[in-house]
Amino acid sequence: MKKTQNLNKINLFEGLSEEQLIKLESIAIARELVKGEQVFAAGDEAKGFYSIEAGKVKIYRESLSGKEQIIHIFGPGEIFGEVPVFQGSSYPASAVTLTKSTLLYFSRERFEKIIREDPGLAMSMLALLSGRLRQMVNHVAALSLAEVPSRLASYLLLLKSTQNSSILELDLPKGQIAAYLGTIQETLSRVFKKMNQQGLIRVERKTIEIIDADSLELIASGEEQL
Predict the structure, then answer these.
(1) Which parts of the sequence belong to the Cyclic nucleotide-binding domain (predicted)?
(2) Interacting residues of 11 by C-beta distance below 8 A, sequence separation 6+
(3) Could you tell me where the DSSP H helices lie in 30-117?
């Protein structure tokens, strides 16, 4: 498969012409990383951004006490690290691979040269950044306003959508899911158990089957309590 076909699967580059993709291909640098390898650390100078061809990457921050807060998990076709790049600042959070991953690196200097010559690509970047801002606002609102069952229901429905299946492979250990949802593992386990007992989900060792998506939708929206 040509690399330009892979680039077209990246959300930032969807719908671009073959000519535009060839320009982007010329500046992309492939990186192969093992599971648990750091991509960048909070405070590093943001000299470029990344897209994911294969694998998963966790974006997180650590408090002074060492507590980890997961900001987002990115998968194939998504980009990360782009906001500080175009602010000319440092990365505000760290990134680490959750699985063996193949990344494409785009330097700020070379990418900016391309978008100065191509307003269509600049508009695509603007649309992506607007969507990313909305995503972050929704996540912060969910953490601050919603109860844990609502947060978990929303998370499971998101996995159902992204994996296009009712049988979900958890993309994180439960301890990290708890951190992402702003709770602790013991509380998360109790909510999982209650959802299982009420017939909303079926919990297996490494998978979760969604049995009653409609009820999860109501719990996620706050219209029903668990």
Answers:
(1) 12-115
(2) 77, 78, 79, 128
(3) 82-87, 108-117
